[in-house]
Amino acid sequence: METSRTEEIAAKALARVNDDRYLLANLIFERVKELGAGAKPLVKMDIKKYKLPDIAMREIAEGKIEFASVEEKE
Predict the structure, then answer these.
(1) How many CB atoms lie within 10 A of CB 24?
(2) Domain extents for the chain?
(3) Could you tell me the end-to-end alpha-carbon distance of the chain, in angstroms, rounded to an integer?
(4) Are 33 and 54 in contact (CB under 8 A)?
(5) So what's the pLDDT on residue 43?
(6) Which residues of 34-58 are buried (b: 16+ CB within 10 A; e: fewer)?
(7) What distance separates the 2 farthest-apart alpha carbons in the chain?
(8) Contact 41, 35 (CB under 8 A)
């Protein structure tokens, strides 16, 4: 991926979470854990060729992954 392309994807992903960098970081972190545990990417990116955070960021930028809600753990 080119740098400018990566910056475009990051900007789109950030826009999807209303410019909340903290929320974006948390979404990426959670999705990376899922991908690392064997989840299939929701975008056409080879998990062996691309880094998991790049895949997660693209998924968010394309609207495949969204923040739904947080449930309190008791």
Answers:
(1) 22
(2) 3-61
(3) 42
(4) no
(5) 95
(6) ebeeeeebbbebeeeeeebebbbbb
(7) 44
(8) yes
Give pLDDT tens digits for 4-57.
Answer: 688 999 999 999 999 999 999 999 999 999 999 999 999 999 999 999 999 999
If we measure between CA atoms, which residue out of 45, 42, 48, 47 comes closest to residue 62? 42
Relative orientation angle of helices 52-61 and 21-36, to the nearest 10 degrees: 120
For residue 73, what pLDDT is reported? Answer: 47
Task: Measure the CA–CA gap between 3 and 29, rounded to whole angstroms.
Answer: 21
pTM: 0.83
The C-alpha atoms of residue 57 and residue 66 are separated, in whole angstroms, by 11
